[in-house]
Amino acid sequence: MAITINFEINNRANSSGHYVVMLRLTQDRKLKRIKTSIQLKSKSDWNAKKQLVRSSEPNYEVWNTNLQDLKEAYRKKADALKSEGRYTIECLLSDVQSSEKSSSFLVYAKNRKDELEESGNYHNYKKYNNFYNKLTDFLKNDCKKDDLLFSELTPALLNKFDTYLHTLHNNRQQDKLLHQNTIQVEFKVFKALVNRAIKEGGYLTINENPFKVFSFKGVPTEKEKLNESEIQAIKLLDLKEGSLIWHCRNYFLFSLYCAGIRCADFCCLKWCNIIENGNRILYKMQKNNKDRNLLLIDNAKAILKCYKRPEAKPSDYIFPLLNNDAEFAKIKFDVLPADKKKELFKAIGAKNALINKELKKIGKLAGIEKNISFHISRHSFANMAKEKKIDSRNIQNLLAHSELSTTERYMGSFDTDSNDMALRYIFDNSSDVASDTDALLQQLKSLDATSLADLLNKLQSANK
Questions:
Q1: How high is the pLDDT of residue 415?
Q2: Cα(292)–Cα(401) distance, integer angstroms
Q3: Is the four-CA dihedral 84, 89, 91, 94 of positive or negative sign?
Q4: Which residues fall within 8 angstroms of residue 295, CB to CB, at 6 or more apart?
Q5: How far apart are CA 181 and CA 218, in angstroms?
Q6: What is the DSSP letter of 212?
Q7: 60 within 8 A of 33, measured Cβ to Cβ
Q8: For the chain, what is the radius of gyration of the CA atoms?
Q9: Pairing assessment for the beta strands 291-295 and 30-40 based on DSSP bridges
Q10: What is the spatial distance between Cα 347 and Cα 358, in angstroms, rounded to a whole number?
Q11: What is the DSSP string of 310-377?
């Protein structure tokens, strides 16, 4: 039975809203569909009768040529299989795919990042997409080429890429070059792709791995964190209840009281995550899929009271950040479709930026010179734990780190007992009086001479 080779367009858009052109193989009622690299913005750009991209798409000439070349490659391989007596769809796919295990590392990297996006794994997708873009720019600018073959992966090329990365500027701080640890992340992705290709087979061998010779490393950094007096200074700020800056202080402190809950998890907290009569919080971390079951200390409960509404449903978000009526709010995160995950993460990213903007204002008002962000609550929690001599294994559990070495990069090593006791001890209010004094001094330091004189005059008037 002959193998029929045609093209068709996928009826459903992918996570980026595009329609993929598919290669369709049929034989004796068996059907196989294979994605091509061509994605159309609109279904109307596809001519189903002629199986071609319409001229309404700017790239139609190049893409139609690519489609015809692909079809011809499958036809030639099918003819060869017929003469060998292996004329089946399975053999055709196996032979074509093994011959396509090319050659092109750049295509391999692109396919991997696209897989991560389509699966909704946006945490890793962002890293792989950043790497792919930097590698593409490197090839274009330094190597004057558009592709990179597996056979060209050598220690010399990695050294050249390393040199190129050291010339790039930081996107957020254009006056600075990329940090060594940012470059380390790029090479971690590079190495992961190479190891994956070796494991899959057909691309390069273990002995051809350039990372056997080339090595890379980051540098130790001091993570920004707040001490107790700085946190107390933030707590003592007189902020208008219900204002955006007041809410953002609540968000930061709640994260701190819950062992540095990450912003993505914080934004997604719902009332059903509060269990055992409001005494504990139970949620699943998005980054590593681990369950978190934590004691809610009194300070955290006080913040929750500010947001509890009589009409609130268990499925409602606790904090007024995400839309309860959005599609992503109605589906469990575990089974959320990739396009809805993308929508959710975009919303979280916008809220994280908004919170961080307000936290910078809070830092200035509190006389804190450090660059405060939501994630600093995590580092600050670890720092407080260190100062209270809490056991490093407890802190590892509370931060949900897989490796103790990650925890110790946050705050070093120390020793005592159990998670709930640790949380109670870290946030023991008995030291608040001393902390209040330190906090007031912290705020007074931020005042200029005129403002300080005005304050003293007001205090003298109040005491008359």
A1: 34
A2: 11
A3: positive
A4: 279, 280, 419, 420, 423, 424
A5: 5
A6: G
A7: no
A8: 28
A9: unpaired
A10: 17
A11: TT--TTSBSSTTS-TTSGGGGS-GGG--HHHHHHHHHHHHHHHHHHHHHHHHHHHHTT--S---TTHH
In what side-by-side order are the strands of the sheet with 19-27? 4-9, 19-27, 30-40
Secondary element (H or E) of residue 53: strand 52-53
CA 162 – CA 131 distance, rounded (Å): 12
Q: Is 26 helix (H, G, I), strand (E, B) or coil?
A: strand
Q: Please write the tens of the pLDDT for every residue from 330-385.
A: 988 888 888 888 899 999 999 999 999 999 999 999 999 998 999 998 888 877 77
Hey, how many other C-beta atoms are within 10 angstroms of the C-beta on 103?
A: 16
- d(CA 78, CA 25) in angstroms, rounded, equals 11
Do 382 and 414 form a contact (C-beta atoms < 8 A)? no
H helix count then E strand count, the chain: 17, 8
Angle CA(255)–CA(303)–CA(271) in degrees, nearest 5?
A: 80
Adjacent-strand bridge partners of 7 = 23
Q: What is the pLDDT of residue 449?
A: 67
Q: What's the rounded Cα separation, in Å, for the pair 280 and 146?
A: 54
Amino acid present at 220:
P
Beta strand 280-284 pairing with 274-275? antiparallel
Q: Extract the tokens encoding 91.
A: 């053999």
Return the closest-CA partner of residue 47 out of 60, 31, 33: 60
Partners of residue 35 on adjacent β-strands: 22
CB within 8 Å of 293: residues ≥ 6 apart: 280, 281, 282
CA–CA separation, 287 and 450 (whole Å): 48
Q: How far apart are CA 260 and CA 398, in angstroms?
A: 9
Identify whether the C-beta of residue 412 lies closer than 8 Å to the C-beta of residue 333.
Answer: no
Distance between CA 206 and CA 201 in Å, rounded?
Answer: 10
Query: Which tokens sit at 382?
Result: 């670890």
Strand partners, 23: 7, 34
Contact between 376 and 225 (Cβ < 8 Å): yes
Q: pLDDT by residue (tens digit) across 140-173? A: 999 998 899 998 999 999 999 999 999 999 887 7
